[in-house]
Design a protein that fits this description.
- The chain has one domain (4-112).
- Helices cover 53% and strands 26% of the residues.
- It is built from two helices and three strands.
- It has helices at residues 4-56, 59-69, and strands at 74-80, 83-94, 101-112.
- The protein has a three-stranded antiparallel β-sheet.
- β2 and β3 (101-112) form a beta hairpin.
- The longest helix has 53 residues, at 4-56.
- The mean pLDDT is 79.
Protein backbone atom coordinates (compact mmCIF):
# COMPACT_ATOMS: atom_id res chain seq x y z
CA UNK A 1 0.00 0.00 0.00
CA UNK A 2 1.24 3.49 -0.85
CA UNK A 3 1.92 5.97 1.89
CA UNK A 4 0.14 9.31 1.93
CA UNK A 5 3.28 11.02 0.58
CA UNK A 6 3.70 8.51 -2.28
CA UNK A 7 0.07 8.77 -3.36
CA UNK A 8 0.35 12.58 -3.46
CA UNK A 9 3.45 12.32 -5.64
CA UNK A 10 1.68 9.90 -7.97
CA UNK A 11 -1.26 12.30 -8.27
CA UNK A 12 1.03 15.24 -9.12
CA UNK A 13 2.85 13.10 -11.69
CA UNK A 14 -0.46 12.10 -13.31
CA UNK A 15 -1.60 15.74 -13.46
CA UNK A 16 1.69 16.84 -15.08
CA UNK A 17 1.51 14.05 -17.66
CA UNK A 18 -2.12 14.87 -18.44
CA UNK A 19 -1.30 18.58 -18.83
CA UNK A 20 1.58 17.92 -21.22
CA UNK A 21 -0.54 15.46 -23.19
CA UNK A 22 -3.32 18.04 -23.45
CA UNK A 23 -0.90 20.67 -24.79
CA UNK A 24 0.46 18.29 -27.43
CA UNK A 25 -3.04 17.28 -28.56
CA UNK A 26 -4.23 20.92 -28.59
CA UNK A 27 -1.26 21.94 -30.77
CA UNK A 28 -1.95 19.07 -33.18
CA UNK A 29 -5.65 19.97 -33.44
CA UNK A 30 -4.84 23.65 -33.97
CA UNK A 31 -2.30 22.82 -36.70
CA UNK A 32 -4.80 20.51 -38.40
CA UNK A 33 -7.49 23.18 -38.42
CA UNK A 34 -5.08 25.77 -39.82
CA UNK A 35 -3.99 23.38 -42.59
CA UNK A 36 -7.58 22.58 -43.58
CA UNK A 37 -8.70 26.23 -43.61
CA UNK A 38 -5.62 27.52 -45.45
CA UNK A 39 -5.71 24.57 -47.84
CA UNK A 40 -9.28 25.37 -48.85
CA UNK A 41 -8.35 29.03 -49.39
CA UNK A 42 -5.34 28.07 -51.48
CA UNK A 43 -7.40 25.75 -53.64
CA UNK A 44 -9.98 28.48 -54.21
CA UNK A 45 -7.28 31.05 -55.05
CA UNK A 46 -5.72 28.69 -57.58
CA UNK A 47 -9.12 27.94 -59.09
CA UNK A 48 -10.09 31.63 -59.32
CA UNK A 49 -6.86 32.43 -61.14
CA UNK A 50 -7.18 29.47 -63.49
CA UNK A 51 -10.80 30.25 -64.38
CA UNK A 52 -9.97 33.89 -65.12
CA UNK A 53 -6.95 32.98 -67.23
CA UNK A 54 -8.88 30.29 -69.12
CA UNK A 55 -11.59 32.81 -70.02
CA UNK A 56 -9.22 35.65 -70.92
CA UNK A 57 -6.11 33.73 -72.06
CA UNK A 58 -3.68 35.65 -69.89
CA UNK A 59 -1.59 33.99 -67.16
CA UNK A 60 -0.49 37.38 -65.77
CA UNK A 61 -4.09 38.40 -65.16
CA UNK A 62 -4.63 35.11 -63.31
CA UNK A 63 -1.98 36.13 -60.80
CA UNK A 64 -3.46 39.61 -60.40
CA UNK A 65 -7.02 38.34 -59.88
CA UNK A 66 -6.06 35.64 -57.39
CA UNK A 67 -3.71 37.98 -55.48
CA UNK A 68 -6.47 40.60 -55.22
CA UNK A 69 -8.95 38.05 -53.87
CA UNK A 70 -6.49 36.35 -51.53
CA UNK A 71 -3.78 38.78 -50.31
CA UNK A 72 -0.66 37.14 -48.94
CA UNK A 73 -0.94 34.07 -51.15
CA UNK A 74 1.74 33.67 -53.82
CA UNK A 75 0.23 32.77 -57.18
CA UNK A 76 2.05 31.32 -60.16
CA UNK A 77 0.34 30.65 -63.45
CA UNK A 78 1.53 29.21 -66.72
CA UNK A 79 0.06 28.05 -69.96
CA UNK A 80 0.81 24.52 -71.07
CA UNK A 81 -0.61 23.84 -74.51
CA UNK A 82 -4.33 24.52 -74.33
CA UNK A 83 -4.45 24.54 -70.51
CA UNK A 84 -3.76 27.05 -67.74
CA UNK A 85 -2.12 25.71 -64.60
CA UNK A 86 -2.06 27.79 -61.42
CA UNK A 87 -0.35 27.14 -58.11
CA UNK A 88 -1.22 29.04 -54.94
CA UNK A 89 1.40 28.87 -52.19
CA UNK A 90 1.35 30.09 -48.61
CA UNK A 91 4.07 29.84 -45.99
CA UNK A 92 2.28 29.55 -42.65
CA UNK A 93 3.25 29.18 -39.01
CA UNK A 94 1.86 26.10 -37.32
CA UNK A 95 1.66 25.73 -33.55
CA UNK A 96 4.09 23.17 -32.20
CA UNK A 97 4.92 22.22 -28.60
CA UNK A 98 8.58 23.06 -29.25
CA UNK A 99 7.73 26.46 -30.75
CA UNK A 100 6.13 27.55 -34.03
CA UNK A 101 7.03 25.56 -37.12
CA UNK A 102 6.63 26.78 -40.70
CA UNK A 103 4.94 24.79 -43.42
CA UNK A 104 4.43 25.51 -47.11
CA UNK A 105 0.88 24.79 -48.23
CA UNK A 106 -0.01 24.54 -51.92
CA UNK A 107 -3.25 24.63 -53.91
CA UNK A 108 -3.31 23.68 -57.60
CA UNK A 109 -5.83 24.15 -60.38
CA UNK A 110 -5.82 23.35 -64.05
CA UNK A 111 -8.34 24.58 -66.62
CA UNK A 112 -8.68 24.21 -70.37
CA UNK A 113 -8.46 27.48 -72.28
CA UNK A 114 -11.89 28.66 -73.36
CA UNK A 115 -12.25 28.37 -77.16
CA UNK A 116 -13.86 31.83 -77.36
CA UNK A 117 -11.97 33.98 -74.90
CA UNK A 118 -13.35 37.33 -73.80
CA UNK A 119 -11.59 40.70 -73.78
CA UNK A 120 -14.08 42.00 -71.24
CA UNK A 121 -13.18 42.01 -67.52
Amino acid sequence: MLSHHESGSALIEAVVIASVSFLVVAAAVSASIRIVVNGAELQEAARAGAVHAARHGDADSARAVAAALYPGIDITARQSGDRIITLATLLTDLPHPGGPAQAALVGRAEMPLAPFRSDRG
